[in-house]
Design goal:
The protein is an alpha+beta fold. Helix content is 37%, strand content 28%. The chain is built from three helices and nine strands. The strands form two sheets. It has a six-stranded antiparallel beta sheet, with no helix packed on it. It is rod-shaped. 10% of the residues are buried.
Length: 197
Amino acid sequence: MASRLNLLKHRQKLVNATFESSIDSTAIEEKLFGREEEEEDEEEEDGPVVFICGKCRLPVGDSLSWDGSEDGQNQIRLKRVTDNVVLGEDTRRHEANKRSPCLIVDLFCGGCRSVLGIVYASTPKNLDHKRFVFCLNVADIESYVLGSASQMLAAEGPKEQPVTLEYRGIVEQQLTEMKMMVLSMGQRLEEIDADLQ
């Protein structure tokens, strides 16, 4: 019996030694969970995004015409925009830095006339990727991811049935049968009451 206990203790030590590791498990968890969060973010980003004016909520573009983003300038670039975006008439000089003078035209919302961004009409070679695309200011627009709505009416829930003519007919038939049963029970109760008197 003692040898059996020693054997079990020896096996337990081997199992513990086998699964002991010098690797910090929290680092592995962070990598795994971080990777999962990134995958979830990618899935959320996969849906088309509609960009709308930050003031009057008119649609101004969508992610299907995406050209890129400028994090340092808080801008997104779109190849196409909706008719709700109006190109300004005046060209003005703009300097992103001293070595990069540009000519730009303002973009306005057709509904509320607020400034949404700019279009580069003339650029130096290092900014050619921005020329003739719509650069929208992130601060002046909002976005909506298609398919992100989650609210449903109770009638559209999985347990509810839509009211169709066939369903209505069945309900009316069941109500008629119940009415007949209640009437017959009432007559029977009257008969029993008359017999008791």
